[in-house]
Amino acid sequence: MDAIRSSCLSPSSLAWLRCFDAAARLRSFTRAAQELHVSQGAVSQQVKKLEEWLGHTLLLRTPSGLRLTPRGEELFAVTCATFRDLDTTVRGLHTAGRRGPVNVSSPPSFAMLWLTLRLGDFYRTHPHLTLRIVGEFVRVDRELMASEGIAAAVRFDTCEAAVPEAVELFDEWLVPVAAPAFMQAHPNLRNARDLEGKNLLHAADPSEMSAPTEEWAQWLAEAGVPFRDSALSEGAQFNLSQLAVQAALGGQGIAMARVALVQGYLLQGRLLVPFRRRIRARGSYRIIGSPSHPQTRTILDWLVDQAHRFEHQRDALFDSAGIVPA
């Protein structure tokens, strides 16, 4: 027995731990045996050897099934996390090891109006890699990213707890935007107090669980512009930010826009900020990387570099156009 005890985490002890983990998780030797494709007796014997090796009873056999002892609970907390992380990493390496594009996940509006516009820079510096941009709203975590071969993901989160593993890429500001032709056609809109509900374009992306009118309501309140709640819902509403931006480009009204999604149009002169007040958005863009994908560091470093460049251009735009905090 002393010889066995001195052999920590040998191939035999790892097999015992795997059987214990399955039996503890499923509360059944039979179901554990089915999962591991061995006999029920083999699982029972492996767990018994583990108990003898450790000198502790780990599982109690009861008429209603297996029950963990306090020592068993302590060990199971470790094996459960360890085998789960090992499985996630192995699956991620297997997926990432296949030849093909590097997956980057992003909300559709951010992918279309910010991320894809910067791909030329990526390919100039990383000509050996191919990116696959996945526009989606699904909540991401490292286990999901490993299983689907996603190297990095960007999300717009209103709180850090939404994606605990994520770190901030950059903050966001809200500004009203309209096409020059729309403002020329509405000379009566000299300041924000002249706004009517029908002038407003609203959007709320599905993942954020907010009302389409929320960002306009926030801007009006923080800019000190009195506005009837009932009038907020009179303008057109969209379920994607990019749709509200497109409507503004088409001269359909004034959209409340996140600067990251419209900066290119502002610099081109296709959109303008008629009421030059900006307010801080309640969320920020955050990034999360897969710990198992071989290209994660490359993608994250590139995204951070692009974010720094964007912030510099954005702040310069604010200064040159006189767009000041409300």
UniProtKB/TrEMBL annotation:
One of its GO terms (molecular function) is DNA-binding transcription factor activity. InterPro entries: LysR-type_TF_proteobact-type (IPR058163), LysR_HTH_N (IPR000847), LysR_subst-bd (IPR005119), WH-like_DNA-bd_sf (IPR036388), WH_DNA-bd_sf (IPR036390). Keywords: DNA-binding, Transcription, Transcription regulation. It holds the Pfam family HTH_1. It comes from the Bacteria. Residues 14-69 form the HTH lysR-type domain. Belongs to the LysR transcriptional regulatory family. This is HTH lysR-type domain-containing protein. It comes from Alcaligenes xylosoxydans xylosoxydans (Achromobacter xylosoxidans).
